[in-house]
Structure formats: C-alpha cells, structure tokens
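ping. complex inputs:
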Amino acid sequence: MNSLTDTKIQELELQANAIRQSIIEMLLEAKSGHTAGPLGMADVFTLLFFHILSHDPKNPTLDSRDRFVLSNGHICPVLYATMAHSGYFPVEELKTLRKFGSRLQGHPHREFLPSLENSSGPLGSGLSQAVGMALADRIDNGRSSSKYFYCAMGDGELNEGQNWEAIMLAGKEKLHNLVAIVDRNNIQIDGFTEDVMPLDSLKAKWESFNWHVIECGGHDFRALDEAISQAKAVFERPSVIIAHTIPGKGVKEFERMYEWHGKAPNKEEADMALKELRTLGGKIMSEHQ
Amino acid sequence: MSSKFLLEKVGMRTFGAFQSRSATARGGVEKFFSRKIFVTGEPKPFQTIMLNIHAKLNTKIFDTDVEQVPIRKGFGEGLVIAGEKNKQVVGLCADLTESTQMHFFKQQFPERFIEIGVAEQNLASVASGMAAMGKIPFISSYAMFSPGRNWEQIRTTICYNDVPVKIAGSHAGVSVGPDGGTHQAIEDIALTRIIPNMVVISPCDAIEAKKATILAAETKTPVYIRLSREKTPLITTSETPFEIGKAQIFYESKNPQVTIIATGALVHKALLAATSLEAEGIGSIVVNLATIKPLDSETILSAIAKTNNVVTVEEHQIAGGLGSAIAEFLSQHKPVPQEFVGVRDLFGQSGTQNELIEHYNLGDRSIAESAKKVITRTHS
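pong. complex structure:
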C-alpha cells in the first residue's frame, strides 16, 4: 500500500463525489432505498476500493484477494456504486437498482451478483461471516497469511446480540487480519442511537472483548488510511475502526437527519442534491465537470 | 430349528440370488423374502415377515436383543470419515461437542475444529463465512437451538448464500426424554424444509446417519441432518444401500392394504406395526423416508399406487413435518386418504423415551390403529 499523497487524496475526493452522485441517481431511479448511510460511508468505501483492498475488479474470484464483507446490507447503494466505479460492472447498470431482474437487489444477494462476498440485509450477521472467512484462511495459510478481511458494519446494528457473539469469538481467536469498520453515524431508523439503545462507550466495549480499537473521522482519508495501516500492523488481536461519520454527508439538507435513514429522494430533492455535489457544495460555479 | 437359524439360512440364499435392483425390475423377480419368527415370549404364532432383501436389513430387527445405538453416534463416526476423505471438512460446535458426538472429529482433527461457545447464531454465520472460503463446515448443536434459535441465520447466511454448510441437529423429537419439552425439537423438519436450497435428512438409525453424514459432505448444498439422542435399534446394515433423495421400501406384504411412510427413529416402530398388522392378516408397505427434502416422488407414488392410502409417521409436529410434505405432494399428484402419526400441536415434557412415545401416540400400536383407520376410509 502506498502512502497517501495530496494528489491521491484529491483523486479520492473526486471519486467519492462521483460515487455520491451515483447514489443519488440510483435511489431516484429506484424510488426507494436508504440515503443517509450510503452517503455517509462513501469516503470509507472509496478509500477501501481505490486504495486499500488487494483485489482485481476484472477478476473478482481471484483467490488471493482481500475479502470485503458488508454487514448492514441496506447501505448497498454505496457498495454497488463503488464497485461499478472501480470496474466490477458498468456504471450504467446502477440504474437497475431494486428493479425486477436486476443483479442489484434491494439488499445484496450473492447469487445475483457473484462478485459479492456475502448476501446481507438482516442485521448483525456480517461480522460472523467475516470471522468465518478469517478462520478458514487461518486453517489454510496460518497466521502469516497475506489476506485481510474487512467488515463494514453499522452502529445501530450493534444492538444485535449476534455481533457480540462474533466479537467474542474473534477476540478469543486473535484474528489479527480481521478489520471491522463501524459506521458511527449515531442514527438508526427510530432515532439517534443513544436514544434508541445507547452504545457508548463503544471503544471500551470492543476493548473489553480483546479488540484493538481505533477511532477516527470517517471523512478524513489520511486519518482513515492511518487507522487501517495501524490495524494491519497489530498482530495480537483483531482491530476495529470506529469511523465517525456524518449521515447524509455531502448533501447539507440530508446531513444528520435520521429521517433520511430509510427513504429515497424525490426528483426535486435529488436535483438539489446533485447540484450540490456537482458544484462541490458551491465551491465551483458550473455543474458540468 | 431355532428362528435365528431359519432366518440366516433364508437370508443367505436370497442375498446371493438377487443382488441388483435392476434384476428385479427387469425380471419381475420377487424382491421380498419371507421369514418366520416367534413372537417373543409366546409359543405361537409363526409370522411371515416381508422384508425387502435388497435393503439388506439387520437380520435381528425384531429380536429383543437387537443392538441399539444412538443415531447421533452415527453422525459422529461419519464426520470423522468425511474428514478423512476431504480435508476441507471442518467442524464447529456450540459447547455440546461430546453430546452431539463431534468430539470424535475434534480428537482426530483438532486443527479443523472450532469451538464457538454457546452462540448458535454465530455458529451458523461463521460456518457460512468458512464455506465461502471453500470449506465444508458441519455445525452441531441440539436441534432446538440449531436450527431452532438460529433459523434466520441459517436461512439468510447459509441457504440464501447457497453455501454447503451441513447442520446436524441432535436431540430431536420427544424421545430426548427427561430433559423435558424445552429440549425436545419437534418443529425442526418444518423449519428446515421450508427453506430453498436446503436438503433435509432424517436417518432411521446410527448406520444410516453415518452414511448420510459422509454423503452430505459430498453435496454442494446446505443439508440438515436430524439426529436423536436415545439408543435406537439398528435397522440397517453397512450393506444397506443409501442415497440422498432416495426413499426405500423396507417391508412389503404380498397384498398390501396400507402404505406406511416413516422417518427417523420411528421407522422401527413402523416395522413393528407392520408385523402386528401382518399377524392380523393386514398386509402393508413400510417406506423409510430418510430424505424428507427432496422427496423421492417415484418411490412414494409406486407404493401408494398399490394401496391408495398412506399413514405418515414422525416424531415431529404434524404441522409442517414429513406428513405435511407427503400431503402437499400427494394432494397434487395422487390424492388418497392419509392418517398422520405425529405430535398434535403440543409441547413435549419429561419422561422416559417409551413413556413419551406412548403418551404422544407415536408407538407401533398407534401406527397400526392409524393403518386400520385409513384402510377403512379407503374403502368407504
């Protein structure tokens, strides 16, 4: 992995912006789906797919690839958009999201889109699957394996007990090449996470299960990159990055509004959002890049 | 001449004479042999027992000293063989390693065994992840907890993903006994057969469980193997043919009036019922339906064609189980009167195996009564 240059960061910012635009466009076309989470995680996904992951989008079954597991499947617009922009399938296909016959099911289904590592949607089981993958890899390649296993998960889904079963097991097994990334955006469907079911102190909770915990800003490429570098270097235990994100990030009107957790923008809202994204929040005058 | 001697003599001759299924089909050769046995403890009568010679069943099936082995033990032994045959086979258990007989595998292949702790949901999904990496994971717990507690994880992370995880649910049925209703899974056939991609196997004895386990490791689909705790008579032998998806006729009278389709440990009770019916002059067919999903429609239809009725027998709720599967199938292809031997919308409770089998009307007498009832309905 190369260190992040300023030029690379600018590239990643533009890429994340394009992915956010795709998210808005596909949700508008689908007329349903989740908005806040995908926008909030666009930077994390961009960094992973364009800088961190050892993978080949043109050869998605390559055995030596890192594995990326999405646990909270409802944020799949960001997964699909990032996969398309990184070359797994044509960007044009994004407009089939949630439609009959589409490979882009409303929640990811591995049988429809084989380059996915897992199907997801029902919350709380992604980390278990990532743990299973890392355990299988350990049997085959020992503790010196060069593969990494990443699992992106929501903070709200940490309400699910199964996560803590998986966290306990990964801690017991000291799965050092497992990296969980929690989207700490503080919202879930019924409201703010701390009102629905308090999670604080999330750091202390994971640490007590024998995980290495790193907290950082979820829109800061350099901080995220450093966090992942650190996670990869820790050998004694698995690592979790608690990425503090702003739900709806990139579109001011959507930011921090839990109402945007589970709905799609209408035409007017989408136009507004796209204009904001295309002008980089008013930094440039023209919408045409 | 002792009954044992007669049996062996007949058995040797017939086994030697008819080796293949196709020979029977082509030549129309009698494929069942009769033997005469004493009903234990009584001076009479001699009985005619029509066991399928091709099934190569245990010659001591009806003897009081028939060897009894827990069905789960066959799973434990089969898993070791599956592990020897394929190094991708791994075992995962939720703190019931010896109880589910996975300890044999753990001893043999410690590096391929994962102790998950009391966490059945994690058990299912961790196995899914391992399968996605090319492993063939077997997960074991009590059926009440897996597939009971972790049903959605099995449904979504195993079957929806369509990965080859094999789920061994032990302690199924009321015959678990003293532990009581909390631990007696009588809903698990319904829970598993309703999920797409899943294969459901319910072996009738430890030997069949061993074969089912070895073969399950070779299939590409999710498989549920239903196991029971208590000692169960050995019905089959190592020679008995076994194929996933294939039902077997274990017993067929010359003029059968009723078809009894049974699964799991109650197959032995069904065979006992057949002998008592025979003594009363009522012929029957007993089908061992080890694979509940997919159904062996050919064997079922050929048996039903001879009797125009069916009694289904299972240690499971009537709702959603083997009987339901048969009813769903026959109502579309060959509607016939059906009687259900199974648990009638009740929970289990503490007791001995025999007390519970009798209490829930699952024993050979209940099966025989249901047979007579369905025969009456067939001709009314």
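The CA atoms of residues 149 and 178 of chain A lie 5 Å apart.
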